[in-house]
Every structure is written in C-alpha cells, then in structure tokens.
TrEMBL record:
This is Peptidase M20 dimerisation domain-containing protein. It holds the Pfam family M20_dimer. InterPro entries: ArgE/DapE_CS, CNDP/DUG1, Cyt/Met_Dipeptidase, Peptidase_M20, Peptidase_M20_dimer. Residues 211-369 form the Peptidase M20 dimerisation domain. Keywords: Hydrolase, Metal-binding, Metalloprotease, Protease. Belongs to the peptidase M20A family.
Amino acid sequence: MPAPSDFLQFVDQNADAFIQRLAEAVAIPSISCEVPRRPDVVKMAHWLDGQLKALGVETQLRDLGTHVMDGVELGIPPAVLGRIGNDPKKKTVLLYGHFDVQPASKSDGWNTDPFTLTIHPTNGQLIGRGSSDDKGPVLGWLNVLQYHHQNKKELPVNLRMCFEGMEETGSEGLDDLVVKEGAKGGWFDGVDCVCISDNYWLNTRTPALTYGLRGIAYYKVNVSGPTRDLHSGVFGRMVHEPMTDLIQIMSKLVDTTGQILVPGVDDMVSVASEEEKSLYEQLDYSIADVEESVGAPITLSDDKTTVLMGRMRSPSLSLHGIEGAFYGSGGKTVIPANVTGKFSIRLVPPQTPENVNPLVVSYIESEFAKLKTKNKLSVEAMHGGRPWIADHKHWNFEAAKRATEAVYGRSPDLTREGGSIPVTLTFAETLGVNVLLLPMGRGDDGAHSTNEKLDRSNFIEGTKLLGTYLYELAQ
Ligand SMILES: NCC(=O)N[C@@H](Cc1c[nH]cn1)C(=O)O
Ligand SMILES: [Zn+2]
Ligand SMILES: [Zn+2]
C-alpha cells in the first residue's frame, strides 16, 4: 500500500517544525555514561513520553532498577514504552530507538556547542550531539505519528514502541524488560516484526538496509602500585611504574594492521568464501568514501572489499583511553600511581562476550606475569553484547526495500554494521521475529565523534521513508 501523497507533502510542509523539535531534544544533554548527566537522561525520558502522549500514543515509563557506574549506584533511566492500535487485521510493528547520547564538549574540538542544534549556513546540515545517533531517527517516528494524529488518519499497522536511555552504556536492565514484556499479555505480545533506526548508510549517497551488527565486549585493565602519584625526578628508575606496565600490556592487544593478538580471538571466525566476498564487492563503497568519512587517507588496505570485511565480518580491537594518566597541556613530571586502560572488542559470530572474556583475561594476566613487575593488576569485563544477523529476504526487509525505492528512487545497499546495539538479538530471540535496521543518516555523520550532524534531507526524506515503510508493511 503506497503512503498517502498528502503524508509526503505534510512532511515537507512541516520540515522546519520537525527541526525545531529536534533542537529541543538535542538541548537535553542525555549522556548515559557520565554520572552527573544521569538526571538529564531521565529528563529526556519524560520529554519523549510527553511528546508521544501528545501524539495520541498510550505510554508507560518503566523503571529498570539501579546499577553501579564509576563506583556510584545510579538509577537506570526509565524505558519509554508506547502503544497505538490494536487491530487484529493489521501487522504489529515494534519500534526501538534510544534517547541517550555519547559524551560531547566543545573542548573535544566541536566547532559549535554540541547541545545547541546548529543549522549549517550553506549546506543546511543539522549539527549537534544525538542529531544522527539516535535522536533524529527517534524523532522521525514522532514526525510520522504527527501526520496521523493531526489529520486523524489511521495508522496502517499497530505500533509498539520501546525507547531506552542506556544504549550507549550497555543497555542495562533492558533485556529483562524485553523478556517480561514479550510474554503472553505483555506489552510486546503479538509483535510481528521489529524496526530499529539507529545506524547509517555506508556512504553519503546510497540508502541502506542493515541485517547484521557486531557485538561488543568492553574491558578495563587497572595497574596500581604507589599509594599516590610520584615525582619522576625523585623516583624514576627506582620503582616499577604503573603506566609503563599498562602501556606494555595495551601494546600487546592489537597490532598496527588490526590483527588481534589475544590468542584464539581472530581464529574463532571462519574465512570468507568467494561467494561471500562478492557480496561486499557489490556494495556501493570505495576507499575514497572511507577517507572522506575519517578525513584522512589512513585505510588499513587499498582494497575496498578487505576494508569493508574488516568492518562488517571481522572482529576488531580498539584502544580507547587511559584513566588516571596525565593528559593536560604542559610538561607535568608525574609518575601516575593508578592507571586504567580501556579497550573493547567488536565481536562477530560465533564470538560472544562469554567465550571471548576468558581468553582476554588469561592472556593479559600471563603477559603481565612476564613483566616481572611488583605492581598489581586487575582486569574487568565491563558491558557486553552479542552479534546479530538477520534474514534479509524476509517480508520485513522487502517492505523496507520497496519503501526505499519509493522515497529515494533506488535500491538500498544491504549492509552489516560494525557497531553494536545489544538489544537487537534479544528482540530477535525473545519475540521470535525478524528485526530490520533502517538507517536514516549517512556514513559521514560523525556519530560518537565531534561535529555530529544529520543532513536536513536525511531527516526529512528519512521521515518519509519510515512512514512509507509502515504502509509497505501493510500490503
Ligand atoms: N548507534 C548504535 C551505537 O552507537 N551503539 C554503541 C553501543 C555501545 C556499546 N558500548 C558503548 N556503546 C556502539 O558503540 O556501537
Ligand atoms: Zn545509536
Ligand atoms: Zn551510538
């Protein structure tokens, strides 16, 4: 069933108001991984709840309990559940998105205040933290609902919604909620398929449908020794230095070609067949696209297929930072007393946090023992999520393909995403239904990075895509 033409006109006519609503959402700094920002994540849950109610959606805020972060016990922001329509003749679609964001501050190198949505004066890009990941896509659904509410139009499907405020911090508490609400009589009972809009096209031109995500296993390695920071002139070459030990360990995790050095981790993954390789060869992507997105000619290979497989079907290990290290300007001559290295591994089938964690922990412990240092080591597996792959020939994907062709006039790329959305597999397994990732933003949006943006056309055409997809599902 094609989307009504007045829906498409409505979206164009209301574009400025939609952008204004996105500005309101971006202005709430809902950073889930920073203790002092937790009230803002809760504020964002209430803001979203109010928006949904105003658009005729029945909602509930669900308490997800507490968790400990940085040694502080914190309330987990409530999940926002929504429900509209209960017609047994219609399909029931579950929409998922997240309203928390990654940290951002002007001092990281943003050109504008990250929490003030700024419209680029020449290209109209909507710049602000969360514009693409994931407030823009979540608000895309609000835009679709507004058309139906304001014009008293019936939706073509029944909708169930699940929006969370902890996706960027391991989706604490959400799996249990999905299991509970997936049971008979629960909020998600009767769901026929799931749609998640929380990722990006591969490039800046071709819309995509995504059928795979990597999982994640996140680690902390702590090395401690002296009871306080020391003067390097007084104690240098007298004592074992925690930072020296930690750098040794971190340098043994991954090599400069991307090979994971933890024995057994890379070996778990099968070698791609020629047939599988051809899937990546067909994708509309080039080395120039990567270079444009990262802003420098630094790809690990000059071969597009190798680079794409690195992101889509291989695990990767990234070093993220060292807590406790001196990082200010100037030349402080300190020996830090207690340092914590952070790294994560993106996982692909058959890897899971459960089968990778023991390999990582025992490798680090054995490498540390070789250092013969008198400092102390502790290794902690933080949050994790399993990888996910879906059947992209399912009617859910077929509907999204038709919607993409209707809105963009071209067939979408079929991609696997390098990032992780831990709850995806939980939805697939618990509800026993197909999950589709229907991205709104482009490959150069800079999610998690500085100057994150969403192109105006991606927000507006992306809204049309989400609405059209619901009509195509109703076929
Ligand atoms: N848009 C999805 C996304 O960015 N997911 C995060 C999830 C995550 C895991 N640990 C911290 N964040 C990602 O980094 O892939
Ligand atoms: Zn996201
Ligand atoms: Zn993210």
